[in-house]
C-alpha cells in the first residue's frame, strides 16, 4: 500500500530472540556489581575485627562462683564483726593502746569493705551469696571446719562471746577483745591466703596480700598486749607466727630462684 512504512528486515548479525541492548563495559560492570560487593565485604570484615578485638581485650570480670566473688562477700561479713567488736571495746575501756588498735581495725576494715563492695558492683554481681559461706575455699582446712552454733565462719565470735564483750568493762573487756580479735585475725588471714592461691584478679590479689600482712602483724601485737595484761591468746600464736614466717621465707626463696633463672 502506498505510504506504508516498510518493516525492517532483521539483521543477519543479530539472531532472533537475542536482546539488542548494548553490552556493559568493564568499568560499568565494576560500578554495578564489584564496588558494592567489595563494600559489603569490607563492612563485614570491619565488624568481625571489632568483635574479635572486643573478645580479646575486653575486661574479664570474675564470675558469681569465682574465688574473687566468694572472698569479697565472705570477707565483708567477717570484717563487719571485727568492726562491731572494736566499737564495743572502745566504749568500754580508756586504755590508749587498745583504743588505738580498735580504731585502726575500724578504719582499715571499713575501708576494705567499701572496696570489696565496689568490686561486686563493677563485676555486676549481687552482694548476697546464693550458696554456702566459704564454698570457694575448697582445699583449705578451715573450709571444712566444724563450727560452733551461731559462728558463721572460722575465727568469728559466737553470739554468747559478743554478749560477754558487751557486758565486760575495763581490763576484762580489753583481754576478751584481744583474745577474740586474735582468733578473728587467724581466720581472716586464712581466707586471704586462700584467695591468693586461687584468684587471678590483680586488685583482689593486691588487697588480700595487704590484709594478710597487716593482720599477721596485729596478731603479734595483740599477743604482746595480752602478755602485758597477764593473759594469753586462745591459740598457739607463737607456732602460728613461726609458720607464717616460714611460709613467707619459702615464697621469697622461690621468687629469688625464679628470678635467678632469667
From TrEMBL:
Gene3D superfamilies xrefs: 1.20.1260.10
Transmembrane segments: 37-57
Sequence ranges assigned to domain DUF305 in this UniProt record: 68-226
Region of interest called Disordered, as start-end residue ranges on this chain: 1-25, 242-262
Any coiled-coil regions, as ranges: none
Record key words, sorted: Membrane, Transmembrane, Transmembrane helix
Protein name: Uncharacterized conserved protein, DUF305 family
Species of provenance: Ornithinimicrobium cerasi
